[in-house]
Amino acid sequence: MRAKTLKIGLLWLAITVLFSCDPHRKYDQYKAIAPEGWKKNSTVSFDLDIQDTLSKNNLFLTIRNNSDYRYNNLFLIAEMHYPNGQHLRDTLEYKMADVFGNWLGQGYTDIKESKLYYKERFVFPMTGNYQISLQQVMRQREEVEGIEFLKGILDVGFRIEECQE
Question: Which helix (H) or strand (E) holds 5?
Answer without folding.
Answer: helix 2-20
